[in-house]
Amino acid sequence: MLRQLKSKYRLGLITNGPSNAQWEKVHKLSLQQYFDIILVSGDLPWEKPSAQIFEEACRYLNVHPENCIMVGDKLETDIQGGIEAGLAGTVWIPLGDSRLSR
């Protein structure tokens, strides 16, 4: 799914947590190949749901927030943050949703 999306869109990943731990996950899963920008809150002065981290991702991607969507698994950080940042839309996919494997 990410490979298909990457072929058509600019993709960003925003993750909360300590820098070392989050980057270890990114590298272990080889996620860097799918994303144009990866922001780890441990490297920045903000974390989700702060609108600033979403705005920073938009700046890196050179897109306006109203032309972005947020797909996330946490209502309180991913979805609320995307709404507060003025993104065009948010999509909540609860962790463990088996429909993603189809």
From TrEMBL:
InterPro entries linked: HAD-like_hydrolase (IPR051400), HAD-like_sf (IPR036412), HAD-SF_hydro_IA (IPR006439), HAD_sf (IPR023214)
A GO biological-process term: N-acetylneuraminate biosynthetic process
A Pfam family per the record: Hydrolase
The keyword Magnesium is annotated on this UniProt entry: yes
Molecular-function annotations in GO: N-acylneuraminate-9-phosphatase activity
SUPFAM superfamilies the record matches: HAD-like (SSF56784)
Names of required cofactors: Mg(2+)
Keywords per UniProt: Hydrolase, Magnesium
UniProt protein name: Haloacid dehalogenase-like hydrolase domain-containing protein 3
Organism: Trichogramma brassicae
Phylogenetic placement of the source organism: Eukaryota, Metazoa, Ecdysozoa, Arthropoda, Hexapoda
